[in-house]
Design brief:
Elements (H helix, E strand, L loop, with lengths): L2 H28 L20 H8 L7 H12 L3 E5 L7 E5 L9 H13 L4 E3 L8 H21 L4 E2 L3 H29 L4 H18 L5 E2 L2 H18 L12 H4 L2 H7 L4 H6 L9 E4 L6 E6 L11 H20 E2 L2 E2 L10 H29 L2 E15 L9 E9 L5 E3 L1 E4 H4 L7 E7 L4 E9 L38 H8 L3 E7 L5 E9 L4 E9 H13 L2 E2 L6 E4 L3 E6 L2 E7 L8 H13 L9 H4 L1
Parallel strand pairs: 7-12
Antiparallel strand pairs: 1-2, 2-3, 4-5, 6-7, 8-9, 10-11, 10-14, 11-13, 14-15, 16-17, 17-18, 18-22, 19-20, 20-21, 21-22
Helix pairs in contact: 1-6, 2-3, 2-10, 3-4, 3-10, 4-5, 6-7, 12-13
C-alpha cells in the first residue's frame, strides 16, 4: 500500500476524528461553570429568587434534590401548606392543605403542590408519604421539575445552556466534514480492494449521527454574570446560616416559626434534619450528611463500578492481565501467519493494521494492570472515619430470588475531605460494621477493596421517647417548665385556654417537640380544623440572638416585658436571661392583633426560667 493510500484510508479519518475531539474537549472546558466567591456573611435574604433557583446557582448550576425540598418548605412558609409535628420525631410530620388560592404559583411550585394534593386524604398527608413507589414515575417527575427550574433560571437571566448555539453549530458542521472524511477513506479502501461501496455510506452516516448527537447533547447549565452575582449573595447567607449551630437541627415544622429562612437554608444545603426527613422520591446517595470531625457538613460521594478492577481480589486482576497479554501478543505478532516487522506496516491493509494496534494496546494494558496490582499488594493503606453508607453492590444472578450478595459499597468519612469515593467491602466481612460506626478499615487503594474493619466506636442505639412520655399528662399536672436534657416545656408557658381567649376560638395544643441543639422547645396550637393558630419556640445561644435580631428589625419594643421584647403584626419575640421566646401567628389566627401577641408573650416570658447569660449584651 502506497503512502497516498495510507494517508487517505487511515490518516484522513484519524486526523478528522482527532480534530473534532480536540475542539469538543476545548469547548467543554471553556463552558464549565465558573467558581463563585461568596459575599460577606449576612443574615438577611439577599434576593427574590425562589429557593429552587437558588439551589441551582449555589451548586455550580447543577440541579439537586434540594430544589424540591426547599420548594415544599417555601410553600409552607407562604401558607399554601401547613407542616405539623405531633411528637419529638420529625419523621412524623404531616402536611396539611390550607385552602389558600394557588393562582400565583409558578410551574414547579404548582408541581410540588399538586403532588401534595394528589396524596392528601381529607386535606392531610404524612410528610414521608410524598415519596414515589414507582421508580419510573419518580424519574419522570424529577425530570419535569428540573426542566421547570432551569427554565425559570434562564428566564431570569441567571443561567444558560452550557453549549450555546454557536458552538453547537460549529461542532455539528465540523462533525459532517469529519464524517465525510471517514466516508472518503472507507470508499477509497473498498474500491481499491474491489468490495461493495455501501459500507462507506454506512460509515459516513453513522459517524455523522454520533458526532451530531454528541454536539447537541444537553450537558446542563452554566453561569451568567447576573447568575454569578446572585450566587455570591446567597453563598453569603449560607456562610452565615452554617455558622448558626442549631439551624441544621431544625425540623421541617419549624418553618412556621422561621419563615423563609428555613426553605432557603434547605436550598443552600445547611438544613441537615429537614433534608433527611423530606423525601419526594429523589433520595440522593451521592450527597450525604456527616458530623465526623466535629461539625455537620454535606459531602459528595462517587461510587466505583464501571471498571473490572474495582473491588476485585488481586488474583483476578493478575488473571485478566495475563489473558490480555496473551491476546495482545497474538494480535501484535501474527499477521498472515508470520511475525510482523516494523517495516511491514506499509504492506498491510487498514483492518489488519487495526488488529495489530489493538494487540499493542492490550499489551500496554496488561503491563499496567500487573504493575498496579504489585503496587497495591505492596502498599496497603488504612482509613479511619465514620461509616456514612452501607449498600449492596453486586449479587450472584439467580432465577429463584434476588441472588446471594457478593460485595457492598462502604462510604467512610475521615473528616478531611468534602468529596469521597466509596470502597468495596466483601459480604463476608460486611457485617463487621454498620451505619454510624467509627472504624479503621484496611484497604487496597487502587482496587478500592476493603480487607478488614476494626470498630472503634459503635453507633448509638436509637433513642426511645421515654423522655417525652409525660408530654401527654393532663395540663393540671405539676411539672417544671424545664424538662430533662435542658428542654423547655412549651405547654407550661402557655395553655390552650389562654391562646383560645386571645384568638377568639377554641384551640388545642399539638404535642410539643423536645430539645434539639439550640432549639429548647417547639409547640403549636391548632383550631378544630387542624389549622395552626399560634406557634411557640424557645431557643438559646446564637440561634436566640438570630431570633431576637429578626424580631427587633420589624417590631415595636415592649417596655417592661422580659429583659428585651418586641412585637409586630404577625410575631412577637422576647428574651429572658439567655433564652429567647418567639410567638408566630399562624394562618388560623389572621385576626389576632399585635397587642394580643404582646400579652401572650408577656405571660409566657413570666413563666420562662431565667438562665445565666454571660453573653447577654450580644443577645440584646
Amino acid at each position: 500500500m502506497s503512502v497516498s493510500h495510507r494517508v487517505i484510508e487511515i490518516g484522513l479519518p484519524v486526523a478528522g476524528l482527532a480534530l473534532w475531539a480536540v475542539v469538543y474537549g476545548i469547548t467543554r472546558l471553556a463552558s464549565r461553570p465558573s467558581a463563585v466567591s461568596p459575599a460577606p456573611a449576612a443574615m438577611d435574604l439577599p434576593g427574590a429568587e425562589p429557593p429552587a433557583v437558588v439551589s441551582l446557582l449555589v451548586n455550580r448550576w447543577r440541579y439537586t434534590v434540594d430544589a424540591a425540598e426547599s420548594t415544599l418548605l417555601d410553600l409552607a412558609a407562604r401558607h399554601y401548606l401547613d407542616l405539623r409535628q405531633a411528637d419529638p420525631d420529625p419523621r412524623h410530620t404531616t402536611v396539611h392543605l390550607t385552602g389558600r388560592a394557588t393562582d400565583d404559583l409558578n410551574p414547579y411550585e404548582r408541581q410540588v403542590f399538586d403532588r401534595v394534593t394528589a396524596r392528601a386524604v381529607d386535606g392531610m398527608v404524612p410528610l414521608t408519604a410524598l415519596s414515589f413507589s414507582d421508580a419510573d414515575r419518580s424519574a419522570a417527575w424529577s425530570k419535569r421539575l428540573r426542566l421547570a427550574v432551569v427554565a425559570d433560571a434562564q428566564r431570569r437571566g441567571l443561567s444558560r445552556r452550557r453549549f450555546s448555539r454557536p458552538p453547537v453549530v460549529l461542532l455539528t458542521v465540523l462533525g459532517v466534514v469529519v464524517a465525510a472524511g471517514v466516508g472518503v477513506g472507507s470508499w477509497h479502501y473498498v474500491t481499491r480492494v474491489g468490495e461493495d461501496t455501501f459500507g462507506s455510506v454506512v460509515a459516513f452516516l453513522v459517524t455523522m449521527a454520533v458526532l451530531a448527537s454528541l454536539a447537541n447533547r444537553d450537558l446542563g447549565e452554566r453561569d451568567t454574570p447576573a447568575g454569578r452575582a446572585a450566587a455570591a449573595r446567597w453563598l453569603g447567607l449560607r456562610a452565615w446560616l452554617a455558622g448558626q449551630e442549631g439551624f441544621a437541627d431544625l425540623p421541617p415544622a419549624a418553618v412556621t416559626v422561621w419563615g423563609r429562612h428555613l426553605p432557603y437554608g434547605a436550598a443552600l444545603g445547611v438544613t441537615r434534619v429537614t433534608s433527611q426527613v423530606i423525601d419526594l422520591g429523589m433520595a440522593d446517595r451521592r450527597r450525604l450528611w456527616s458530623s465526623y470531625g466535629g461539625r455537620w457538613r454535606q459531602v459528595s460521594v462517587s461510587y466505583p463500578g464501571g471498571l473490572p478492577r474495582y473491588g476485585q481480589p488481586l488474583g483476578w486482576i493478575v488473571f485478566w492481565a495475563l489473558l490480555g497479554g496473551l491476546l495482545g501478543g497474538t494480535f501484535a505478532r501474527v499477521i498472515g501467519g508470520s511475525p510482523i516487522a516494523w517495516t511491514r506496516f506499509t504492506d498491510v491493509g487498514p483492518v489488519t493494521l487495526g488488529f495489530a494496534l489493538l494487540g499493542f494496546a492490550l499489551l500496554v494494558l496488561a503491563g499496567y494492570l500487573l504493575l498496579r496490582a504489585v503496587l497495591d499488594l505492596a502498599a496497603p493503606a488504612t482509613v479511619t472515619g465514620e461509616v456514612l453508607w452501607h449498600e449492596v453492590w453486586q449479587r450472584h444472578t439467580s432465577d429463584d430470588g434476588p441472588g446471594r450478595i457478593i460485595n457492598r459499597y462502604l462510604v467512610i468519612d475521615d473528616g478531611h475531605a468534602d468529596r469521597l469515593r466509596a470502597w468495596i467491602i466483601p459480604e463476608q466481612i460486611a457485617g463487621d460494621c454498620r451505619h454510624g460506626d467509627v472504624v479503621t478499615a484496611q484497604v487496597r487503594p487502587w482496587t478500592r477493596r476493603v480487607l478488614g474493619v476494626t470498630v472503634h466506636r459503635a453507633a448509638p442505639e436509637p433513642a426511645d421517647d421515654a423522655a417525652y412520655a409525660d408530654a401527654d399528662l393532663p395540663s393540671g399536672t405539676a411539672l417544671p417548665a424545664t424538662a430533662t436534657h435542658g428542654a423547655i416545656r412549651p405547654e407550661r408557658l402557655l395553655s390552650a385556654d389562654e391562646v383560645g381567649a386571645a384568638t377568639g376560638r377554641r384551640v388545642s395544643l399539638v404535642r410539643p417537640t423536645g430539645s434539639t441543639g439550640q432549639v429548647r422547645g417547639i409547640a403549636s396550637f391548632v383550631d378544630g380544623g387542624g389549622t395552626t393558630v399560634l406557634a411557640l419556640q424557645v431557643t438559646c445561644g446564637m440561634m436566640a440572638r438570630f431570633t431576637l435580631t429578626l424580631g427587633r428589625g420589624g417590631g415595636v419594643p415592649l417596655p417592661g416585658v422580659g429583659d428585651d421584647a418586641y412585637t409586630g403584626p404577625d410575631r412577637a419575640v422576647g428574651r429572658r436571661g439567655d433564652l429567647v421566646l418567639l410567638l408566630v401567628r399562624g394562618p388560623g389566627a389572621r385576626g389576632i392583633e399585635a397587642a394580643q401577641l404582646g400579652a401572650l408573650l408577656a405571660t409566657a416570658l413570666s413563666r420562662l426560667p431565667s438562665e445565666p447569660a454571660p453573653q447577654r449584651s450580644g443577645a440584646g
